[in-house]
Amino acid sequence: MTLAILSTFTAILISVLLLLCLKWTVAISGRLNYDEKLAEYSVYGLVGAKRFGISLEKDQRKFSVSFGGRERKLFSFNLGGLNKAKKKDKRLTKQKKRRLLNYPSIVSSLLRSIQWRRLNLNGEFGLNSPEQTGKTFGALMAIGNGLTPRRFHFNFQPNFNRQMVRISGTTSIQLCPAVLAWRIGKVYFGFNR
């Protein structure tokens, strides 16, 4: 009996460690519409394969988590709207203040731990004046065509008639949770000093 429990626990522990050491693919897509002071947005993220994984979906009205693909969900539950947490007045210790100052290093270690696979941005925009729209469009074209890697694709169209923004995009990154946790933990706890 004890041997069966111990072997089951060992198998689960090895499975969890293997999952943490493998590279995970995270796909994120989003949409932003702003027109005549009316803004709408939605964000969708999927961890796992295209047909099966854990997905999160957030827009103005709902926040939901589901298992399965984007079209075929095996199981889904709604977490409702996000409630704003009440502010608590806490005094920061010296150690917490030091950790707060480490956020640039934490972000740097996060960026070193992920591999950006692709980025596609499509959209249409219009600013206050046609002149501003044209200058911004020229700058975006220069950045999109000359300064970005080939796996990044930008397709923006100017709208000279009105002030509006309509952007949709998808991206995909790969990361290894064990490496990510190690690098962020090293910076957070000050092991790299």
What features would you describe in this structure?
Strands 5-4-3-2-1-8-6-7 form an 8-stranded mixed sheet. The longest helix has 20 residues. It is elongated, with a radius of gyration of 22 Å. It contains 5 helices and 8 strands; from the N terminus they run H-E-E-E-E-E-H-H-E-H-E-E-H. Helix 3 packs antiparallel against helix 5. It is α+β, with helices and mostly antiparallel strands and 193 residues long.
Identify the quaternary structure here.
single chain
- Secondary-structure-derived class: alpha+beta
Number of DSSP strand runs: 8
Low-pLDDT sequence parts: 82-89
Strand fraction: 35-45%
Number of separate helices: 5
Q: Give the mean pLDDT.
A: 78
Describe the biggest sheet? 8 strands, mixed
User: What is the helix/strand order?
Assistant: HEEEEEHHEHEEH
Provide a short characterization of the protein structure.
This protein has 193 residues and is an alpha+beta fold. It has five helices and eight strands.
Write the layout of secondary structure elements.
Layout: H1 2-21, E1 24-35, E2 38-48, E3 53-59, E4 63-68, E5 73-78, H2 94-100, H3 103-113, E6 114-126, H4 130-147, E7 152-158, E8 164-175, H5 177-188
Parallel strand pairs: 6-7
Antiparallel strand pairs: 1-2, 1-8, 2-3, 3-4, 4-5, 6-8
